[in-house]
Each structure stands twice: as structure tokens, then as C-alpha cells.
């Protein structure tokens, strides 16, 4: 299979549209050409179709492509940070309430849920560690809650 026949992702299409946008802002493309090529980029299915759209344009500087990629992940990074903090707080909120095990199931479950979402949303080892601690704390809380319930059912 040729590289030109491999299917493209949405990220690949967006990268081509960014190149077209830069070319239009530099005056290399007219607005009509930019609109036409952008529409074709969003409809493209293979790398070959995308390559045709930018074949007559210069390559972007390396730094420009990195900036575009980083901007796309900013919202997700902030979301993951908040989820990691929530997981840690909820996962261990039950510790001061340990004597009242009948009410601490909710923070434990919240710690597990927020922690799992935080793990999915984060690439940073630090934030993943916080989310993992939240999952562990929440899991311990749920396990103690189940043990407490079984103990009182058998009593």
C-alpha cells in the first residue's frame, strides 16, 4: 500500500487547513482559493488528496506546527488537572469521617470516577499520579464500606 493511499485523521486535515491559512495570510492564496482548498481538505480521505492541496506551498517552519498542536491540547490539559485534584480530594475525603462509614461511600465513588477520568485526560506523570492516588483512596473507601456492610449483615 502506498503512503498516498493511507487514510487521514481529523488532525491531519486540520494541519493542512492551518498550512492553507498561513499561506492565505501571507498572500500566497486568495480567499477563494483558501475556501476551495479548505473544503477539499476537510473532505479528503487519503494523504494523496491532502498532498495535492499544499504541493505548491512552502513548508511551515517547525515551530509553527508545534504551536498549533499545543493550542489544541490546552483545554484538555486543564480539564485533566481539575479532575486529578477532584479525584485526590474526593478519594481521601472519607478519612476524617472514618467513624461514620455509612456516609462515606459517596466521596469514595467520586474519587474513583474522577480519578479514572483524570487518568484518561492527562499525559503528565504528576497529574496521573494524583489521579491514581484518588482512585486508590476511593477504592479503599469503597472496600471498607463493603466490608462494613457485610459485617453488619452477618452480625
UniProtKB/TrEMBL annotation:
<feature type="domain" description="DUF1707">
    <location>
        <begin position="6"/>
        <end position="58"/>
    </location>
</feature>
<protein>
    <recommendedName>
        <fullName>DUF1707 domain-containing protein</fullName>
    </recommendedName>
</protein>
<dbReference type="InterPro" id="IPR012551">
    <property type="entry name" value="DUF1707_SHOCT-like"/>
</dbReference>
<feature type="transmembrane region" description="Helical">
    <location>
        <begin position="77"/>
        <end position="95"/>
    </location>
</feature>
<keyword id="KW-0472">Membrane</keyword>
<feature type="transmembrane region" description="Helical">
    <location>
        <begin position="101"/>
        <end position="119"/>
    </location>
</feature>
<dbReference type="Pfam" id="PF08044">
    <property type="entry name" value="DUF1707"/>
</dbReference>
<keyword id="KW-1133">Transmembrane helix</keyword>
<feature type="transmembrane region" description="Helical">
    <location>
        <begin position="126"/>
        <end position="151"/>
    </location>
</feature>
<keyword id="KW-0812">Transmembrane</keyword>
Amino acid at each position: 500500500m502506498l503512503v498516498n493511499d493511507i487514510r487521514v485523521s481529523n488532525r491531519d486535515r486540520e494541519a493542512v487547513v492551518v498550512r492553507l491559512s498561513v499561506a492565505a495570510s501571507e498572500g500566497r492564496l486568495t480567499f477563494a482559493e483558501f475556501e476551495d482548498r479548505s473544503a477539499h481538505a476537510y473532505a479528503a480521505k487519503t494523504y494523496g488528496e491532502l498532498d495535492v492541496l499544499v504541493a505548491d506551498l512552502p513548508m511551515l517552519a517547525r515551530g509553527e506546527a508545534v504551536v498549533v498542536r499545543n493550542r489544541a491540547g490546552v483545554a484538555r490539559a486543564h480539564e485533566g488537572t481539575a479532575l486529578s485534584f477532584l479525584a485526590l480530594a474526593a478519594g481521601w475525603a472519607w478519612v476524617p469521617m472514618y467513624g461514620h462509614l455509612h456516609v462515606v461511600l459517596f466521596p469514595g465513588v467520586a474519587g474513583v470516577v474522577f480519578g479514572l477520568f483524570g487518568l484518561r485526560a492527562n499525559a503528565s506523570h504528576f497529574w496521573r499520579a494524583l489521579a491514581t492516588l484518588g482512585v486508590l483512596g476511593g477504592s479503599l473507601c469503597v472496600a471498607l464500606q463493603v466490608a462494613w456492610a457485610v459485617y453488619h449483615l452477618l452480625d
